[in-house]
Design goal:
alpha+beta; 54% helix
Amino acid sequence: MTPAAAPCGTLAVGAVPDASAAGAVLSVGRLRRWWEARRDRLHGDGGNAVVEFLGVALVLLVPTVYLVLVLGRIQAGTFAVEGAAREAARVYVAAPDAATGAARAVTAVGVALDDQGFDDPAADALAMACSATPCLTPGAQVQATVTVRVPLPFVPSFVRDVVPLEVPVSAQRTAPVDAFRVGR
């Protein structure tokens, strides 16, 4: 086979390609590599990780932070009612008479609720019950019940008017009246 008789696109053994054909082959190869690099860059995953991370972070992080806020507020309500009930029962049985005991109990409940950031009226949150009449009879039991409705944070008031979004939290504490109490 002579160099002139070689089929198109092949070179015969010992034949030297001309310079114009080599330049065309090089430029086509270079163009193909350039196009493949561009195509891979357009269809690759470059930059998608940031978008995916932000999407997953919003879907998981925002509800988790809200849950922590809600649980923290409910825990504050629990601390408030526990302390308020304990102190209300304690100051009531230590008072010289029932009227003074009731006033001191309401004050103690107000301080405990205010300490945890609840602005509920203390007199409405407190309920007292006695096992004997009168309440401060020696050996009787006085029970203080404190109830607070904890609103969910960041819920607008117009939504609260339609759907009650509050968690009721209550605590009871019983305190004995001293058996050796001297009536005053």
